[in-house]
Amino acid sequence: MRSYFGENLKFMLEGESHGEFVSCTAAGLPKGFAVDKDRLLAFMKRRQGGNLPFTTPRKEEDLPVFETGMTDALVTDGEALTAKIYNKNVRSGDYKGFADTPRPSHAEYTAQMRYGSGIDLRGGGHFSARLTAPLCAVGGILKQMLEKKGIVIGTHLYSVGGIKDEPFSLTDVNASDFERALAGETLPTLSRESAEKMTLALSDAVMDGDSLGGVVECAILGLPAGYGNPLYDGIENRLAGAMFGLGGVRGIEFGLGFEATKMRGSEHNDPFEIRDGRVVTRTNNCGGVIGGISDGMPIVFRVAFKPTASISIEQDTVSLSRMENAKITVNGRHDPCIAIRALPCVESIAAAVIADLIISKDGGLA
Cα–Cα distances in Å, from 150 out to 27, 46, 235? Predict the structure, then answer.
């Protein structure tokens, strides 16, 4: 199965969780960009299972094979770039029977209603977060390309189960905040105290055979004013549409988000001023986007992820073959909180969308 997004920079994701491979193809990248392999692999490692506490024990090498678009020296050649990752550590037996007794809040039922009973649903099939592995291979490259243009993207774990981390400053977030989150001893948070509280909550959920939801906060730094479009093709629209391609996303908010509904206009409006010879806003409650177009301030947004749907507690479902109510217990290897490994995925989507918008306005990334 294949899925697509992007306009000038076009992306195609292909494969299934327990199929032979998963891949991501990006058409429209510039020729002659030398990729830093060590940085790319370090970025991809952040989404791998087994590298952080409270992540799935399924651990794949996740070494991308660049079938097209890249020379042996890891320099882009101007052709469509395809990053393919082969699946090796699969246990398809853990998913036997779910086509007939679909897991609550998973896509087994809806997928069969859309595509028929022959669709590959092992490990979630094409609906699995496994597809984010090659996405991060391409996203990591795009992040390097954008950094050459002075645009830096980073994240931290904003909340788990309602326990909040220290938020990014809407006006003064900088790259050192990204590094601080990555340096977290247990979880990628800005506050050690927050990480400790999240760890306790996650431990309790795991002991109960349950899971927790979470929120990832992302900031895009260095994008000048004037990128994006009005109405249905704005930065918020494009980011939101692509972010919902990540499994488990339930919502996205920019700047102060829903908190703005509690304010007066005089409180929420971002006054303009001249600072060091450039136009800035004194506050950044809008999150760096006005009318769908960047205003030159940091673009700050938060992506909400639901609790992991695969839990070991017995749940109610149905038998589609017998058309009667049934019980189900989900075994296998699953993250108790999918938001933890979603950080590089959010960064990859952000890089893809921003790169696409730059190509739209400037004609290219080079």
Answer: 22, 23, 18
Question: Which residues fall within 8 angstroms of residue 130, CB to CB, at 6 or more apart?
Answer: 15, 16, 17, 22, 87, 123, 124
* Gap between the Cα atoms of 324 and 32, Å rounded: 59
What is the Cα–Cα distance from 264 to 261, expressed in whole angstroms? 8
Q: What is the pTM of this model?
A: 0.94
Per-residue pLDDT averaged across 306-334, rounded? 91
Q: Which two tokens stand for residue 306?
A: 């639901």
pLDDT of 70-122, one tens digit each?
A: 999 999 999 999 999 998 866 555 567 788 999 999 999 999 999 998 898 88
DSSP of 166-217, one letter per residue?
Answer: PPPPTTT--HHHHHHHHT-SSSS-S-HHHHHHHHHHHHHHHHTT----EEEE
- CA 88, CA 72: separation in Å to the nearest integer? 24
For 353-357, which contacts have Cβ atoms below 8 Å and span 24 or more sequence positions? 353/235, 353/238, 353/239, 353/242, 354/146, 354/151, 354/153, 354/220, 354/223, 354/227, 355/9, 355/142, 355/145, 355/146, 356/6, 356/7, 356/8, 356/9, 356/28, 356/238, 357/227, 357/228, 357/235, 357/238
CA 327/CA 69 separation, integer angstroms: 48
Within 10 angstroms of residue 328's Cβ, the number of other Cβ atoms is 16
Q: Structural domains in the chain? A: 2-362 (3.60.150.10)
- In whole angstroms, give the CA distance from residue 48 to residue 333: 13
